[in-house]
Known about the structure:
0% strand; globular; mainly alpha; 78% helix
Amino acid sequence: YQKALCEALANQGKYKEAQDLVAEILRADPNDNEAIGIHASLKLATGSKEDAQAAIADLQTILSRLPRERTAVVRYNLGRGYAMRGNNQQAKIQYEEALQIRPDYLQPRIALAELLLQSKDHGRVMQLAQEVLAIDPQNIPARLLRSRALVGLGDLNQARTELKQITTQYPQVMEAQLQLAGVDAAANNNAAAEATYKAVIAKTGDLRAVVGLSETYLRADRVDDAIRVLRDELQRNPSNTKIHILLGNVAMRSQRWDMA
């Protein structure tokens, strides 16, 4: 019951309460593999490198105790920990091992594809996304990975077609909206890119949309509009270092020395 409650608390975002409860379980039985696994998952959920290292230690402990055929989930989470620590090679090894153990396991396939995007291995990303979609045709992360692979492979038209389908079916998925705007911008369809970036900013204020909109204006030689967008963002978030840097770069490029 306590372990189920831990997972329920974590699903509600109550990580501190879940961590306190799993600590209580481990005080009673320090060798409880399931509790150690929950503890590791909670550490990974914080997103910090220090907690990721603690999670790795927990997961390696479990790995040493279980037969290989029962370690797919452990290896997937271990891969996540290594990725958070910046050790992409070890993360890749763990994801691939998880897939060898459980070929139908979708999460490590998606995580591996996301990792491979960083090295621009678009062909392999496409393959992994297709494998996920063969099992789960509506899997949104896999569809978004496939569209990113298509962009990387130079097929902007097909990428745009797929992204339009996603944004029509799931208008709340902002990642698809951002990708669509990026594809339109890459195809010099600045009006469409502008409209989508503005819609995302209005709904969420996502910084990526602010940056994308300013870059779209710059490509169209609309320097004043680019500056206005960045200044508006600084009014909302005066301490945002990235926007300060971007605004300085725009000022330098446009020779607005009074702003630079």
